[in-house]
Automatic annotation (TrEMBL):
Origin species: Castanea mollissima
Upper classification of the organism: Eukaryota, Viridiplantae, Streptophyta, Embryophyta, Tracheophyta
Listed name of the protein: Ankyrin repeat domain-containing protein
Amino acid sequence: MNKPRPRAELLYELVRTGNIVAIKALCEEGASLE
């Protein structure tokens, strides 16, 4: 089973792959860009 990934790790992966749409969606959910 896949365990849920920490938000920061997920965010880093999205930035690395250039997935701006997903990043914006996460930000609207309340993710912080720390």
